[in-house]
Amino acid sequence: MAKPKYLGMDVHKDTISVAAIDSTGKLITEAVLETKAEAILSFVNGLRRNIHITFEEATWATWLYELLQPHAEEIVVCNPRMNALLTYGNKADQSDARKLAELLRGNFLKPVYHGGTGMQALKELTRSYNAISKDLVRVMTRLKAIYRSRGISCAGTRVYRKRYREEWLAKILEPGARRRAEHYYQQLDALTQLRLEARHDLLNESRKHSATELLCQIPCIGPIRAAQLIALIQTPHRFRTKRQLWTYSGLAVDSDDSAQYCFVNGRAQLSPKKLRRVRGLNRNFNHDLKDIFKGAAVMASITAGPFRDFYQAQLARGRRPAIARLTLARKIAAITLVVWKKGVKFDAQQVAQKAA
Fold first, then answer.
1. What is the pTM of this model?
2. Interhelix angle 120-148/175-206, nearest 10 degrees
3. Which fold has domain 5-105?
4. CA 86, 91, 94: angle at the middle one, nearest 5?
5. Where are the beta strands (DSSP E) in 194-303?
6. What is the pLDDT of residues 181-205, one digit of tens each?
7. Residue 145 region, left (φ>0) first, then alpha (ψ -120 to 50), else beta?
8. What is the C-alpha to C-alpha distance for residues 332 and 308, in angstroms, rounded to an integer?
9. How far apart are CA 45 and CA 182, in angstroms?
10. CA 184 – CA 226 distance, rounded (Å)
11. Is there a contact between 7 and 56 (Cβ–Cβ < 8 Å)?
């Protein structure tokens, strides 16, 4: 069997700096390639078999992963936030490629999941729906900012409705500001229509996946959230436990432990006075996934059902509303993982169990 070769790739828009090392860390070859499929495959195939490749998660990561997967023994798409070694010493494309190869050889890289198949259409439609939704909220915020900056109260949604627009525009006395508001209204109408089309396409695509029906059983996880969950997670078997899902969703607590052990009668034991500092929720997470569970928790806290009862019980125990909603979001995430992974129906009794 051919000896393993570890290939680090520092990818840019026009070029890719690559470096290949062997199992002892000796540099085999390095080159600068054009960011085109033909050039990349020609170089990789020239190294023959037993190739292990790594590159950082970025815009082109999915394309590169799918391109190189049939030609490599292993592909690790690594998390750039965790590659502290790249910040030491001189910063250059070739040195970064060599450092990536070394980290891959030593198994020091934090991988980013790129294993789902048959999800590309759903992922793209989810990105489209999310981007249009964020743009729509941004335009709505800008519209209200025009009125508020002139001391005009505009609470509620009436300011956005077509039938009341002339009435609202008449309150803006400056011609330039009024024209600016008219432009925002035009943008609002266009994005509203686009969002309806993106929603329709997303729901149609999500119906092709069997997990959609399972997830829609969970209260406050409707068809849109179910589609987004499938696109973002792809498979629940990525997470062995609920705590791993909490960490990925930004719902886990980071803490610093120090002086954990002491010696008693010559044996190491956990210290009763260990130093522990809670730093709050973890910061390295999937923001879209956190928005899904937080949004579901907010809706569940005001909608009659088992989740609202759970939320009210948390408040009765003296927890602050923000902490109660966090606990509820963890509960929803844990139940989502169980229902999806085991393929079982939602049971209200699951809410009463200790899941968060």
1. 0.86
2. 160
3. Nucleotidyltransferase; domain 5 (3.30.420)
4. 90
5. 253-258, 261-264, 267-270, 275-281
6. 999 999 999 999 999 999 999 999 9
7. alpha
8. 12
9. 57
10. 31
11. no
